[in-house]
Amino acid sequence: MEEEVNYASVVFKANKASSPKAKSEEETVYDEVKVQENKTNQTADTPGVLPAGKSSGSCHHVQVVAWCLGILCVILLSAVIALCVYFATAIHESERLVSDLKADSYNLTNHIKNLSSANDELKKDHSNLTILIGNLTRDKGILESRNTNLTTENLQLKTEKSDLERRIENMTRERNELNLTRAQWSLDAYCPKKGNSQERQCGPCQEGWIHSPSLSSCYAIVDPDSSGQRTWEEAREDCRGKNSDLVIIGSLEEQKFIYEHSWGSTSETNGYWIGLRNASGSWKWVDGSNLTEEYWIKPPSANAHCAISLQKTLEKPKGWKAVDCTERNRWICEMNALSV
Question: What is the largest CA-CA distance in the chain?
Answer without folding.
Answer: 215
